[in-house]
Structure formats: C-alpha cells, structure tokens
C-alpha cells in the first residue's frame, strides 16, 4: 500500500517537472479558453445545473480567472476530476489550474511539485452519521464502517484520529462524492467522513437532510485553494491575484452593485489601483488595467460568491466562520494591492 502511494507521487512529480516548462498564461491566451479542473460534482462548490452550466464556489474562481485573462467568464472548459485523478490532470497539462476542494499540504506543494495560489476556503474534516445511529461524538465510533474518498487527505487523517483514540474502523473506499452519497444512504457505511463543507453540501442534497447529523469533532486543518504547476510563476501570479482581488474587493466594499460607479474613480487609492483607474497593476500581471474589475463583475466579491453558492441563505447553509474577513474576526486577509 505504502509503496504504490510512493510510486504514484513520483510519477506525478515527474510529469510536473516536464509540463512546467511551458508558460501557461501564453497557452491560455492562445487557446482562448481556460481548462479548469473541478470536482466530478459537489453542489455548491462545483456541479452542472439543470442546463448543464457549471455553478459553484470553486467554479467561480475558474470563471473569475477566465474573465481576468480572456475577458469572458464563459471561456472555460470544466474538467471533472476525482480525488485520485486531479493531480495527474494538472501535472500532465490537461488542465491549467485546479479549483477543487483541494487541501494545501506540504507534500502536494513540495513533493508533487504544485503551487497553491491561496486559500478560498478554510475547512477541516468532519463526520456525518444518520441520526438513528444515536452517536454524539466521533470517539464513540469504535468498529464503525466509514466511507472515505481515496486519494484524499481524509484517508490519513481518519487513520490518525482512530489510532490516537485507540479505536478501530473499517474503511469503505469510494472514488467520488456521488458514490459516497449513494453508499452512505444505502447503509454500506455507518459514517461518511470528508471536509466539513463537503459534508454540508452533500447533506443538503438528501431527501431528508434532517435525518443526518454532523458530529462535533473537526479532526484536521483543510485549507482549500486553487493550484497550478510549480515553476509556472506568471500564471501562478494571475490565479493568486485574481483570488486576492475577490477577497480585497469585499474588504474594500466593492460589490457587483457598486463596481461600475467605483470604477469611475474613488477617493480610496487602493480601490483605484484594484480597479485600474490608478497605477499599472494589470500590466505587471501581463493583463490589461480592467482585469480585476472583470473578475469581480462575474459573481461579485468573495462575500457575494460565498453567500450565493454556499452561504447561510442557501440549502448548504455554511456560516462564514474562519472564512470571514480578518476585519470581522476571520482568516481572510488579502495582501495589499500596491
Ligand atoms: N480536501 C481533501 C478532500 C477533497 C475531496 O475529494 N473532497 C470530496 C468530498 S467534499 C469531493 O470534493 N468530492 C467531489 C468529487 O467526488 O468529485 C483533499 O484535498 O484531499
């Protein structure tokens, strides 16, 4: 088991070294389309709607980048990836970036040779159980069968948690969230464990969400964010600062409702630099002066994107929590636009 994981990592790292030679920003511009890796479907984060149009919190990052670089938020080819296939897709060049509930870890950065360009959701791993199981703490799960998505951080966290608490479990390995949902609802596993946001998103699609509970334990740190290949610095900058533009826009009070007015010039120099009425930040990125304005216009600032896709007014119902701005006691903190 250990050996195959190790060999998998080497193969992916080898591919990354080869593909990183090309400048992705030039490829994307020449192609006129962004190839963005997303999940195979997790409503609220990335999933096609009834018209086949991809929607969600991670999808919004892809569309913002496409708007910044190509001037068109619809110029995106969404490439579904599983926990297992996502890294090969990025390393091989099949996708230009990955925006898929992916945790920034040491080994993915250093060993697999990717570059995380920020964090769009601070998360942690949780457990969902049917209420009827009558369990109120993950520590009471001794002997449980647990649905667990392969190729994810959640596999190792699960093993660590059970070992540390001296309890045992039987893993039921699954490949996609859809499969997990199906197995869990069919009773093939007592528990589903993954990122808490993913559990909330999955539960929201159940016929009777109220029959299922999330246990209080959060057993890991899962900082989720977009990533590119190592060594692809210009492209990494574009993705990093597009995400930062959405976050800064919220902090600076730039919204989809007032952005046109603000783009005419304000008395806040940072807003002016962000929206391109002062300075040359867009040019430094290899883009034009309106890049950030276009990115923000797609779905609004970070807070608007959050509220529309996964926030408390949606069936998923996530509170801002750690994902509030630093000015509101959260962890979101975009570096300065200067
Ligand atoms: N954040 C963890 C877990 C990511 C993960 O695969 N999450 C699942 C459940 S939230 C998911 O996004 N599934 C969507 C799919 O199967 O395509 C990681 O990076 O390994």
Low-confidence blocks of residues: 1-10, 17-21
Secondary-structure class: alpha/beta
Number of strands: 14
The average pLDDT is: 94
Strand arrangement within the widest β-sheet reads: 10-9-11-8-12
Bound molecules: glutathione
Please write the string of helix (H) and strand (E) elements: HHEEEHEHEHEEEEHEHEHEEEHHHHHH
Number of helices: 14
Radius of gyration: 20 Å
What fraction, in percent, of the residue positions are helical?
Answer: 25-40%
Q: Note the overall shape.
A: globular
State which percent range the strand residues make up. Answer: 15-25%
Sketch the major β-sheet.
5 strands, mixed
Question: Alpha-carbon distance between the termini?
Answer: 48 Å
InterPro entries: Bact_solute-bind_prot3, Solute-binding_3/MltF_N
Pfam families: SBP_bac_3
Family: Belongs to the bacterial solute-binding protein 3 family.
Keywords: Signal, Transport
